[in-house]
Structure formats: structure tokens, C-alpha cells
Amino acid sequence: MKGKINLSMKARRDIVGYIFVLPALLCFVIFVLIPLILSLILSFYKTDMFFMDMEAVGFANFGRVFRDTLFWRSIGNILLYTLMAVPMNVILSLVLAALVNSKIRGSKVFRLLFYLPSITSTVAASIVWLWLMNPAYGLLNEILNAFGLPDATWLSHSKTALVSVTLITVWQGVGGNMIIFVAALQNVPQQLYEAAKLDGAGVFTMFFRITIPMLMPTMYFILTMTLIGAFQLYDQVYVLTSGGPANATLTPVYLIWQNSFGENAGAQAGYAAAQSFILFLIIMAVTIVIRRFDRDSAKGGK
Asked: Roughly what angle, to the nearest 10 degrees, separates helices 69-101 and 252-261?
């Protein structure tokens, strides 16, 4: 029959694969790649969000970023937040995963309870925590007073605000990572534990000598995603502190939002684009470093 194209089985599988990948690829191009390119172009101009009165300024916006003490204050804040939040999140999610994966009564109920904060609206949860941590009538201070302890400043003091935000974000993010660890734990061969028991290994020995090494690929994945999420902290800061007090919780993403949509309503859109691109480079560098450690550990395990 004329015009009929005979395709091999491999070619047919490839076409089907491309068809399934196409929607995700289109979403990536439309919502990630194109905005990234436009943001880079915008960073070389002095303009607002509506591209009115565009003035080419070259690398002036990037030079301004490096001289902006407020931007680097936000970078310092996010680094401090990352040092607190990421280890807490990874360690706590691993411990919870090990607990709910054990054969104890009610483990599925606890798994659900630990996971619930992860599917709760960030804004709604932050509003509840804003009430709980209110220095005048908050429930947490009421509990402290019931035990004879003084009130805590929580979100209202520069020394405790970032720590309080960290605790809230860890509480909300640990459940999702716990589920990933649970899935990884269920793929660990039980024969390894049985052989270790025959050799007289205890629970902690098996955890550190078997569980941790077998979970390293998953741990690096969670570490990477948690780090990226930490550098993009915005929602909780917007609701809880608005970057205060005294810029103690100011984050790069919140500062970029202020320059783009804040009081100036986009008058510094070009400058905000330069800030966002600098932040993108920082996140990419951190991700590359983690991937390097991941490859090195994988080579060492062979």
C-alpha cells in the first residue's frame, strides 16, 4: 500500500515516549524556560513590570546587587535559616520514617498525622501559628505560664523570629520527606537485617551500618530539594513577619517580591530580575556541590 510507513518496534516505543513527555516539556518551556530567559533580559534594563519606559543599563543592575547591603543581609538570613532548617528537617524526617515503618500498633495513624501538615495550606497554617505565637494572648505563652516560665517573644523579637519561622517550616515540611524515606526504607532488603541480627548487631548498629548507607541516594535527593526550598522561603515570612522585625527574617525571595510588587509596584522590576538571577546562580552552585558529593559517595560505595 502506497504511503504506508513501516516503523520498527523501537521507533514506535520512542514516539509513544515522546508523546507522554511532551505535556511536561511544554509546561517546562512555558512556565520555567521562557520566564527564565525573560528575567535575564529584563535584568539588563531599568523598567517596571509592564515594560514601560525601558532603558538599557547593561550590567548596572548586577553591580547594584553587589553593593546592596539589604540583599546580602537577606542572603545571610537565608544561610542561617538553611543551617538550622535543613539538618532538622532531614534528621527528623528520617527518624519519623524509621518509627512509622516499624511494626508497631497504630503506625499508619501516626504516618497520617505526621504527613497532614505537609498537605495543609501554608498560608492557613501560618495564620494559625501567628495566633499561637502571639506574645499577648498566644496559646504557647499560656502553656509556658502554666509551668511557671516567662513569656517568649517568638516572632516579635529579632533574636527569636528566625528561629520561630524555622520551627514552623520544619513542622510543615517534615511529613513530605518522611513519606519519601518510608518508601526508601521499604526497599531495603530484609536479608541484611536478618544477617546482622545473627551476627549480634543491635538496633542502633543496624541503623547506622545498614539503614543509613542504603538510604544515601534518597538522602541526597531530599537534601537537595530541601536546600532549594530553603533558599526559596517566602510564604511563611510574608504571613508571619513581613521580613521583620528589623529585617531579621528578610529573605531574598521576599526582597525580590518587594522590589517587583511592593510599595513601588514594580518600579524596580529590572533590578528585581537581577536579584533573582543572582539567587538562581547561588542555588545552582549549591545544587552542583551536593551532586558532586553524591557522585563521590556513589563511587566510594562501589
From this structure: 130
